[in-house]
Amino acid sequence: MSRRPIWFDAALVFFGLTLLYVATATYAGNQMNDAASAFTSAWSVTQHGTLDMSVSPAPKVWYVEVDGELLSDRMPGIIGWAIPFYAVLGRTPTPTSFPAGVAAATATGLAMSLLFCVFARLSTRRIAAVAAVLVGLSTSTWTVSAHTLWPHGIDQMWLAALLLAAGSQRWWAAGLASAAAIVTRPPLAISSAVLGARATWRARSPRPAATIGVIAVLGLVALVVYNWTVFGQAHLYVGSYERVARAYTGDSRTADAFDWRFLLENLAGALVSPARGLFAITPALLLLVPGVGQGWRFSPGWVRDSALAGLAASALQLATVNFSGGSGFYGYRYTLEALTLCSPFLLMCWLQWTSEFRWRRLTFFSLCGFGIWANVASLLSPPAANTSEGKAWHHYQLSEAVLSLGAVDRSLLSAVGVVLALAVWQLERRYRQHEAMTGDNWDVRECPESPVPQSQ
Question: Which of 195, 258, 335, 422 makes a 20 to 30 Å CA pair with 28?
């Protein structure tokens, strides 16, 4: 029986999620400083042919003044991604946030469709599609990456491309994805280094590391050349990012020097704090933790490599910036890249442990439903309820968001809860029906890259 080409199913995932993301993105005039600085620069390029933000009457944030020009210090990968959207949708006298919202939604939708292709290498397309949708809706991917022009949606897109290339051993494509990720968020260079080094060690060949490394270094060079050309500084970081550079170099004369205690506190906050904790915001991940051993045992080499790359990226990021990630949004920011890189391994944990018993599946699906419901609540709430700077350990954003809703929004949220409960029941019912008809579940255990003997 012939099957649809995988690109067709990936397109369905992309269009379905992207339309939802575009409908729920924020287009308010008062945007986060990071997003406003990036899209104002993109608007200036498309409408006036310059990076100088002073041509805009809007307030300026996160800029460096060079020879009387106000230049955004946001990464060129973000500005460059937004430029086509402002060229098509941003022909206005002043910069508006609509093209930026569409740009963020599109990047995140592409990221999820690429993750679907990655997941399809490990399981059936049905489970891959469910997994991609759950990553896209039950995590902070929806409320952060797809909501505003943060760098995270673009990061996730390039990292998903990196995973797809690594899974098929297309090292040149992995290098290109790495270079694109680096000019968007330079700390992601460590992910490329770890993944390339691990692939070289497994293959007993220098080709993976050499190919990825050479092309990824071009991304670093491109970033330095950009900063030298635009700002007159041959550095990786300029403007407000300079404190990050001081932390990386371990300069003890500054307040931003590397500190092991700061890193450990950040890791704890990023995992379990009420307002920014990965497990607090996405509790379904707790049902995957017991499957780490089994998942690691059955995972292909590239899945293990990507998980280690994600952990390294997260550690490096949290060593230099506060885990709270600012204010004005619901969920977590700095662990999104690690979550993307670890997602194939988390899928293996689900296949090898969580999916084995009905109570585990039901609990997992229910917690995913809760994550989606919480995200909807945050999207319906006013911006004031999505603030946690300085209080990530003391406030639970979800309760604040729900309490801030009006009667109509609470009714809508209740209806969403009913729909999600029915979806959880239907998903489990379909799973059990498939098992009863085929004698097996939806996943594919006979992965040819598995490091252990295959079960029959």
Answer: 335
